[in-house]
Write a structure and sequence with these properties.
- The complex is a heterotrimer of chains A (440), B (474) and C (156).
- By secondary structure, chain A is an alpha/beta fold.
- Chain A folds into three domains: 19-229, NADH-ubiquinone oxidoreductase 51kDa subunit (Rossmann fold); 239-331, Ubiquitin-like (UB roll); 336-425, Up-down Bundle (de novo design (two linked rop proteins)).
- Chain A is built from 17 helices and twelve strands.
- In chain A, helix 5 (93-99) packs across helix 7 and helix 13 packs antiparallel against helix 16 (399-414).
- Chain B is α+β, with helices and mostly antiparallel strands and 474 residues long.
- Chain B has twelve helices and 22 strands.
- Chain C folds into two domains: 2-63, Arc Repressor Mutant, subunit A, CATH 1.10.10; 75-152, Glutaredoxin.
- Chain C has helices spanning 5-11, 24-35, 40-50, 54-63, 83-86, 90-101, 143-152; strands spanning 75-80, 114-119, 131-133, 136-138.
- Chains A and C meet through strand 4, strand 6, strand 12 and helix 13 of A and helix 2, helix 4 and helix 5 of C.
- The structure holds flavin mononucleotide, iron/sulfur cluster (SF4) (2 copies) and FE2/S2 (inorganic) cluster (2 copies).
- Residues 141, 146-152, 176, 196-199, 201-202 of chain B line the site of one iron/sulfur cluster.
- The site of one iron/sulfur cluster has 15 residues of chain B, from helix 4.
Chain lengths: 440, 474, 156
Amino acid sequence: MTGRKVLMDFEVTPTSHTLEAYLARGGYQALAKALRGMKPGEVTQEIVDSGLQGRGGAAFPAGRKWQVIDPHDGQPHYLVANADEGEPGTFKDRWVLEHSPHTLLESMLIASYALGVRHSFIYIRGEFDLPWRRVSAAIEEAYAAGYFGENILGTGFSCDIFVFRGAGAYVCGEASSLLASIEGSRGYPRNRPPRLTVKGLFQRPTVVNNVETLSNLAWIIGHGAAAFRQIGTPKSPGTRLISVSGHIARPGVYEVELGYSWAKFLHDECGGVSCDRELKAVIPGGISSQVLTGRDAKVLTPHDVETMILDHDALWQAGSSLGSGGMIVIAEGTCMVSLLRVMLRFYHHESCGQCTPCREGMGWLHRIVDRILAGKGRPEDIDLMYRISKANDGTTICGLGDAAGYATVAMLDRFRDEFDWCVEHKRSKYDGNLECRPST
Amino acid sequence: MPTIYIDGRPVEAAEDQTVMQAARAAGVEIPHFCWHPALSVPGNCRICMVEVEGKGTDIACNMPVKAGMKVFTNSDEVVAHRKAILQLTLLNHPVDCGICDKAGECTLQDYHYRYNGEPSVSVDAKVPATKFNELSDRIVLDNERCILCSRCVRFTREVSGSNGLGIEHRADHSRVQPSSDGAFRGDPYSDNVVDLCPVGALLSRRFLYRSRVWYLEPTPSVCPGCERGCTINVWHRLEDWKLKSVATKENSRIARVTPLENPAVNGPWICNKGRDLADLFERPRTTQAKVGGRPAEIDEAVAAARRLIATATRPVALVSSWGSNEELEAFARHLGGRLACFVKADHRPREGEVLEDGLLIKAGKNPNSRRARELFGDAAPSFAPGTDLVLCWGEGFDPALLPAGAKLIVIGSFFDAATDRADVLLPASTQLERDGHYTNFEGVVSAFAACFPRPAGVADAEALFGLLAGEDAT
Amino acid sequence: MRHLIPEFEAMKKRLPPGENGVLVLPCLKRIQEDRGYVADEDIDGLVEYLGVPRIQVEEVLSFYGMLRRAPIGRFHLQVCHNVSCSMHGAERLLDRLQSRLGIAPGQTTPDGRFTLSRVECLGSCGTAPVLMVNERYYELQSEPLLDVLLEELGKP
Ligand SMILES: Cc1cc2nc3c(=O)[nH]c(=O)nc-3n(C[C@H](O)[C@H](O)[C@H](O)COP(=O)(O)O)c2cc1C
Ligand code: SF4
Ligand code: SF4
Ligand code: FES
Ligand code: FES
């Protein structure tokens, strides 16, 4: 067990995603509690008190975001659940969408009530088919049961929901890009100010939260902020859905109480590194979070147990972040130069092309690392990669460019010898290997 | 009025200004590509980074002013950022300034010399792009040179409304492209994007490879294309660079026309008709005075015309709505009492021309109708029975309408049916050969100045009026 | 696309009124599902139906990786080549598909049956390597499984 549960607190069966099963688990009682017994401001206050942080990547306090919105200011407000889940290594929102869609819907209703939202959206990545079917079916069930539409539960509160399907653009996971996409444009992110909570969708105040962030609400309203604070650490309350992949024995989505031992999680729950290899590195929160060497992360062996915990602060201190919770485990024998190449190919492909440092920088980095792997690297190329990454640091419109820069710098910093080796010997030290297969 | 500090200097700013605007108003230029005072703020070029004490760096064009903020436009970090951004801006740029019309007035070139100056640090191949992308018969786009600032795109969305341009694809494959329905081709304001483009990506086909810009100088003028009277710069060869032996004709040709920013009339824009003034002014000119269809000395022709006026019993004058305020007033003074005067529309809308829109273009296609009507009334030209002389000043008179037996004097600059039919023809200078003013439809008076000398055999109309009235020549 | 207009109208039911742009992407996706790609005449129809500028639709079509302007093969094999899938042999899968189908990524077999593409992370990294065949995910793939899959899809 990985600590207490908020979201994965039921057994997944072929029907556990249905309304019937959800109601049997006590579903939609938190909604009734909020609509019948709480004022919108009280709901928001409860979320503030819970200390819930965003689960989409930046761990921004959800309550602080909501407080910007005045539900009674007479203009429309919008709520969007971010189900774009494009960060490589991340597949946890998909778990919610497939297995517990009503948790998200109930939570979105609660949020809509608190924020004065009449029309809400789920923005789901275009490739997700089953998750989309499950959510759509759940929405129809919820409409039929009177949870959406006019005069919900006879309280006078009305709210509609629309599932908006993306069409293959990673950057559309970025909140302002996502809104541009809903509005029917290219997904170009935009500068702040103004913040989205001031001018968002259709120029109206808008809250965008990650699927997992929102899905915590039903529990928080149902059990109270104080109970939520009992879970996790004082600064990072609650749990995180961690999706583990890469060279790991038991990949998958796990709900981990914040503050849980990282080594114990990796070695006990996830079965440790595959093929009995040593741990070389971990990318803790999607490829846009900085890679840590197994040594830095102090998760090399199960005996490192208590040294490193999974919570936001601990990871920041270690020089990385829990990001999107997409944990990629990398075994010894993996070529980090090739790994960076795969990452940079991705950023190059996905840059929206709007701002200069990212548009030009991603392609440049990609071409340089390609060249290094092709045996045509020059010693100064490593410095050049640092410079290009630095040129994206804090200079871009959205986080894509600068996160890519940080991720590149971390790879160079922490595996510098491998890059130098590759330049010097004109080939990868590990023959470009990315796989971890049983030796035959 | 919050006070902010730019590089230590206190600057008064308006509440709703950005740092970019406040700095500009105070005469501090923060480098920028994408920002333009008349367009929305996309903040995509990232060259306008400034540092704010206690807050780090961010773009000035999207930074609201805050009382007491301390902005630094040249701190070490800003300088380093600027340089890095410029190197990235130039990464896939072909640097073919040697064959680029924009060289000499290119923002990228200027900034490179000012803020970077280093040779390229890249050894990798540039991403290829279309070199000669024909957007319309007026404009070509060099996608290699485009730095994707989106000014042109925003212009077609926010100003002209044609939605003629967009940016397609992503990352370093992003390319400005025209809408496939040809909306850009139909945009009567399309040429403004050439001026807006901070680099040499959008080029006017009229001007393509015609001159280096440093051989040219602008003369302020007024577009005569419609009653709006947009103020313009007429560009022509600098005196010191006049061609001496070959192609000397270029010396007295309009190289290009650009808007002369004017908040009272046209803001920073003009329509395409204004760009095409060369077409208007380079039509065949009357340079030879004629009497009875035969070449004559100017004095002889003036004398003949004066006799006709003196002896006519019912003379009518058709006054040019292309005359300057000064000319119209002179006409009224010298000839207004002698002839029955009507204001004539020298030009009517041409086939396919935009008649009127909500931006600049007005239906009246003559620059000075307002002043002409103030002096000579609104009545449409008509010939009372017994009219025996018509003095036609300017274009647009159909000689078929000439009353039977009436004589015709034409004071004009270009050949047309009336000049062919004239009993006396007096060649007159054009707007480009004299100074003057027009009064636009709203009563705003704008000045134009001579760009070229008067050709031989051509007189200023203003001088002719006095002579025709029988007053002594000086 | 005109026969789809009743469906588009139905979508409006749960959307904020008066915001037509919001239908651009949903309509394009529905059109593509219907025809297999988005044709010029579809754009004409959509521009007229929604009253949005044509360039907006063209920008959208070129921006999003899943939208296409030309037909492709009956089975679209999209192989994820991002980090976790690469760590589980995505390149081997691609090699196998290329040699079995005789086409490179981005190409369609001459019989119009298969189109092969490389794609970025599909959000299924725990079951890497992954590929999509049309809208379905095939997880935990391997070369032998690919051979079975190709057989199912009618590869002789
Ligand atoms: C390039 C980029 C991609 C992103 N992709 C996602 C995503 O797929 N899902 C997500 O929830 N947040 C994503 N984000 C973060 C969002 O911008 C936003 O911060 C988040 O949805 C807010 O929700 P939260 O506060 O609940 O985490 C992305 C950010 C960037 C810069
Ligand atoms: S950082 Fe990259 S993805 Fe983000 S806005 Fe700029 S170009 Fe687009
Ligand atoms: S063509 Fe010129 S104005 Fe248009 S985006 Fe490119 S650089 Fe900017
Ligand atoms: S001028 Fe500010 S970002 Fe371009
Ligand atoms: S890396 Fe292939 S599905 Fe995520």
